Amino acid sequence: MTDRKEAQGFVPYANEADVLEIGRLTIENRLDRITISGDVDLTADKQGLEAARRLHALLGQIVAGLEDRDLPDQLPPPKIEKVDNPFA
Question: Is residue 48 pLDDT above 60, yes or no?
C-alpha cells in the first residue's frame, strides 16, 4: 500500500481500529480522539521529506474532521473500569 493510499484509508474518528505508523510515531484512531505517541525524526533528506509529507497530510485530515463537527468545549475524561484479573 502506498503512503498516499494509506493516509486516505485512515478516516479520523471513524473507528476504534485504525493504526498508522510514521517513523516511530504511532497514530491510533478512536471515535472521540486520535492518540499520537512515540517519536519521528524529520531528517533533511528524502526520507525525512516523505515522513513530513505523511504527517502533514494526516494532520490535515484530522483538522478537517474536527472542523466538520459540532465540538464540545472539552470531552469528559475517559471512563476507566477495573476488572478482576482473569488469570489470577
Answer: yes
